Amino acid sequence: MTDSETMIVMSGVNKWYDDFHVLKDINLSVRQGERVVVCGPSGSGKSTLIRCINRLEEHQAGSITFKGIELDEDTKNIAEIRTEIGMVFQQFNLFPHLSVLDNCTLGPIKVRNASRADAEALAMEYLERVQIPDQADKYPSQLSGGQQQRAAIARSLCMKPEVMLFDEPTSSLDPEMIKEVLDVMVDLAESGMTMICVTHEMGFARTVADTMIFMDEGRIVEEGPPEGFFNAPKSERTKLFLSQILSH
Amino acid sequence: MAVPRPRARRVRWWKSKPFDVAQFTLLTGLVVWLTWRGAAGMEYRWQWHRLPQYFYEIIDGELLWGPLVYGLMVTIEIAAWGMVLALIIGLITAILRLSDSFAGRIVSTVYLEIIRNTPLLVQVSIFYFVLQPILGINNPIWTGILCLAFFEGTFASEIMRAGINSVPRGQWEAGSTIGLSRTKTYIYIILPQAIPLMLPPLTGIMVNLIKHSAILSFIAVFELTTEARNLIGDTFMSFEVWFVVGPMYLILTISLSTLVGWMERRVRARQ
């Protein structure tokens, strides 16, 4: 397994919501272990882009492959492929009727047919990694936003995915809780996880990103390593965006 | 220095409790008096003392249940089985309507529109005179249960559809991303959240089943209303019997609502 093995390839991807052209000619390739941060103004198609990668959204033209498997309506075992692609949502989407531990063990038990004991051991391992092992028996509503998001990350990790998608994971958090979630994400990045993050946390992006992507109006406007991206952006649109979000 | 708590304003006499009680007593008294006057005017002979034997009799030290108790049992039986079947029919219909299958959506829509837009009495007749011989059902009670289940199943399906739809889309997506199939997502994620929401309106269906079971007296099912009618045919005590049978339905339905209300609070408290 070489470090440069390609995991996700999007080529010529287009998507419409009725008449609204939300993704335009997206070409993107993500290597194993690569950390990609996607930024851009709201409505630029960032979330849609990553939601196409696990087929929560369906693209209408172009092709997306995950480890060489084409994702389209003919794809068999889409559920199986999704187990290899973890996803963390802006709104956490924890299961409110299950304890944090059960949130984490549901996938391993019901999808991977793990025994309850194994699943719980695995869940505790990841809950420890996101530093909320003592919250395992609580229900999501009893946790703070930051704890909920970390529980959601642990839930995803329990499926041992090969890539993690983050869809604005800190956007609905109180400011003082953002750091605890970012710390977990940095830790994850350092462990070599392939990650695609939609986020406006530019400090995080500078720390972990291998590749920065800037999107506007459904297009990838700029793509490149963070040094060049932050210090010498090529496009005027990127400059304007960065000056606005970094000026405070 | 603490600000003294302002004293509650004096309650006006017409909003006071004793006045409420007096009002209620007066109103009830008026209704009873009017009924009694009406009965007296038509020279109705009250025979309340003859009624208990139709609940139970003790013959040679042995307790024998009377027709009113048997009727009540049959009514409960119809409502209970009707509820089970209505829930199954409702769930299947709701899931078909929410599915991607064109045939499924058509079948469920046709079923809903037919049942909703025809009189229940006509449906009972069709079940009794047409479907019972065709299906070879030899006991009209099952024809009745089946008919009521299909009737109430339409309401159950609407309640369930609303309950399922009220679970946020993010829950489906979270289920998908950990690799759960559609069926497993329903079982482990959607229904456990939707059912507590469905419970209170579903009680209404159980209550309806109890009430609508009376219509089965039309097809000779020996439930409470049939027993009452037969009893009146034998004894001519129509006032006494209906005054007793009405409250029997009331006790049944109200205790049911209370029970489900309690269950619902317990489910809520657990989350």
Can I get a quick summary?
The complex is a heterodimer of chains A (248) and B (271). Chain A is an alpha/beta fold and 248 residues long.
Commentary on this structure:
The complex is a heterodimer of chains A (248) and B (271). Chain A is of the alpha/beta class. Chain A has helices at 46-53, 78-83, 100-110, 116-129, 145-157, 175-190, 202-208, 226-231, 236-246, and strands at residues 6-17, 20-31, 35-39, 61-66, 69-70, 85-88, 163-167, 194-198, 211-216, 219-224. In chain A, 37% of the residues lie in helices and 25% in strands. In chain A, the strands form two sheets. In chain A, strands 6-7-8-3-9-10 form a six-stranded mixed β-sheet, with helices on both faces. In chain A, strands 2-1-4-5 form a four-stranded antiparallel β-sheet, covered by helices on one side. The longest helix of chain A is centred in the C-terminal third of the chain and has 16 residues, at 175-190. Chain A is globular. The termini of chain A are far apart. Chain B has nine helices and two strands. Chain B has a two-stranded antiparallel ribbon. The longest helix of chain B is centred in the C-terminal third of the chain and has 33 residues, at 238-270. Chain B is flat and about 75 Å long. Chain B starts with 16 loop residues before the first helix and ends with a helix. The A-B interface holds A 54, 56, 79-80, 82-83, 85-87, 89, 91, 93-97, 106-107, 110-111, 139, 141, 152, 155-156, 158-159 and B 168, 170-171, 173-174, 176-181, 184, 188-189, 192-193, 271.
Strand content of chain A: 25-35%
Task: Summarize the biggest pleated sheet of chain A.
Answer: 6 strands, mixed
Instruction: Kindly state the number of beta strands of chain A.
Output: 10
State the largest interface.
A-B, 27 and 17 residues
The SSE string of chain A, one letter per element, is: EEEHEEHEHHHEHEHEEHH
**Cα separation of the termini of chain B:** 42 Å
Mean pLDDT over all positions of chain A: 93
**Shape, per Cα inertia axes of chain A:** globular
Percent of sequence in beta strands of chain B: under 5%
Task: Enumerate the strands of the largest sheet of chain B in spatial order, edge to edge or round the barrel.
Answer: 1-2
The radius of gyration over CA of chain B amounts to: 25 Å
Instruction: State the share of residues found in helices of chain B, binned by percent.
Output: over 70%
Mean pLDDT of chain B: 90
What's the tally of helices of chain A?
9
Strand order, biggest sheet of chain A?
6-7-8-3-9-10
Question: Which spans of chain A of ≥5 residues are poorly predicted at pLDDT below 50?
Answer: none
Shape of chain B: flat
Helix content of chain A: 25-40%
Kindly name the structural category of chain A. Answer: alpha/beta
